[in-house]
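INFO  loader      accepted 1 record
INFO  loader      residues=182
INFO  predictor   begin
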Amino acid sequence: MFTAAYNIAVAYCLAITSLLFITKALGSNFEHIQTFIGSVEAENFTYLTLPLEGHVVIMLESHEGDADLYLSSDTLYPTWDNYEMKSDSCSNDIVSIRKDQKRPIGVGVYGYFKHPISKFRLIVYLDSSKDNYYPEEETEDSVKFVHPNSKSNSASDEPENKESMLWTIFIEFLSIVLDILI
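INFO  predictor   done
INFO  writer      dumping tokens
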């Protein structure tokens, strides 16, 4: 059996390696657009609409339970059997949307059946290295997620610092690794 100190050292090395990988993958051209914090019950969907043009990256972090991500440009209400893109891992889910993909994109966050409720944070990034643009006719409201069942959501509209985003990812990853080891 490995000692607790060894397990912590392995977790630390994994966290640093992952942070370096994420930094390299995200690069310096990712602009934080919006964060949506929500929850979804087991075997249900929470739907959002993404009208933002350009190369968009969506990251779903499950903080409790297991939420999965389903996206479609054909329907605003994608399901587990009617979608174009998905990420349904047991950890953080990331989906990249090409800039030439038809908008708006329907985003469905699904609550896995083994958890009565899944709490999540959905983060939207725009990758400016992919020749993205904001059309001049866009308004501030056009780059926001719109939750169809509510007049407002609990999203943070203030841009985050890149370092803050990386620390958030690092802390979340470290938390997952420590949970696995303990």
